[in-house]
Write a structure and sequence with these properties.
alpha+beta; single chain; flat; 10 helices
Length: 575
Amino acid sequence: MITRPISAQNLSQRRTWTDVSGQHSVDAQMVEFNDTAVKLNTGKQAVVLQRNKLSKTDREYLEACDVLRQSAEQADRVASQLQTDNLRNASLMAALEAIGKSSPSGFVSDFYLGGLKPVQTRKEVEIKEAVRINQRAIVAIKKVQQFFPDAHAQTLASVYNNQAVVAARNGSAEGFANFLKLSGEATPGTLSFATHHNASLLLSTEMNLGGAGRTLATVMGLGNPEPGPRVQSRLLYTFAHDPFHFEMESSRTDSSDGSDGDSMEMTGNTAPVSLENLDLVSSGSAFLLTPHHAMTNRHVVKDVEALLLTNDQGVEVKATIMAVSRHSNIDLAILKLDEPIDIAPLPLRKSNPRQEEEIVALGYPLPGRYEPSLMSNRGSISKFMADGKSMLHTATVEPGNSGGPCVDLSGQVVGVNYATDRENEVRNYAVLSEDAVRFAEASGVELPSVIPATHATFADTIEACRDAVLMVHCYATARPSSSSERLTGETSESDRSATQFSLIADDCCLWCGGRTYVTCPDCVNGRRSVRKVVVVGRTINGSPITAPKIFRPDCPSCNHGKVSCPACRGTGNIR
């Protein structure tokens, strides 16, 4: 059966097709192709050619198309398998391997397996298998890039990064540095967050890196690092990638949402629908404006088909998008609840807060890592942005906090979290409450009168605000294409923990690679080399004849050449 190509690249571009002899050629567009034949359109007639009769270059071109097509097929099946909080589940690995075998030309299954296998095991045979899997993915992506040079650059950078972490697990600083260098070179001018983080991490250790240190310093200069979340001092696997789900170029439409405008856009694009047959694709935070309305971020609800709001007290209500801001610096949206909630809403403070005023950030971050319960973090306002619409604050926020409120001691909302930047220092961004008030009123929401409460401590404030802070569950028929510009934005449930910020931390000790031991510096395989001068004979007159001799006694400091790793104290885990 002829299968339509489904590729982000222009597979139907007009090109010259040549037969295996090189004597005959035709200038045509590819219409359809399968494993044995390709259908072309010359503009005057349709031509079907057998693949084995084409030139080597044309056959390789079609092989690249096979990779793209089967990668898209794998991606559709992989998405449902990654809806799990347990990435160490052996059944997940088995499912990914089965998907890879069913579409062997694709690389999506290998893309995930190459990073997930090392996370779920410390067996050396499995680590070696991860190396082979990553190499397969690299070969497949390069096959595509031979004809589509700009395709899957980010995906390739991620595979090289993951290969680097595996090299570190194997104790190869040189391999680690070289793969990170390839990762940086895959995306010229931009260094992925994981690559930059990993290079920085090893450069900051006390390890003797030798030439690898110079290579890592080169990596740091390959481009400007992408912003990313706050992470622990651990090597990171990354699953950031270019889109796997494709359409023909001719069918693409302008997806601009006009977000650079200065107006508020009323919308009704999320009609009440059943959540059946929809996938949970992302999540964020929100808070009640009125019993009928909630406020969140524009990027949290972008491209979703249905919304469910919950809190950790058991409230559950569906919602629709009522309005979104079109101002580029006001990342806000208003949701209309299907039915009112009998909970006191959070009042929006109508005057902006003061610098250094203490606040607490509330929300539902990292649902794939933590249980879905309210998290609070205290901080203060450190800066007001020049645009007059955003503030910086020091209250810790994580992926999933997007759309959650920053409240003052009285429980009034002074800002709405929308991003964090931890490139050089912690910077957490929130839309100021004055702009939130103007947006709500312009959208037709009648805000309740503010009656300032009196709380003795922030613990009292959190308890008073708890019920009105909501978790936003976003549903769609397929995972929406998300840009990485929002740093505390939606956490993908189709990739769940695996793609929370597209990152997974390797908890193995950097010194021993998770093996719990390092090689004893005082011996070789448990035997010391001791040189002694001994009597080997006697002269005629009875004087001793001496000579040096090497003895190999057991090493008292180790067990067969292995000593407990001093960095992790023999646990294999980063402390």
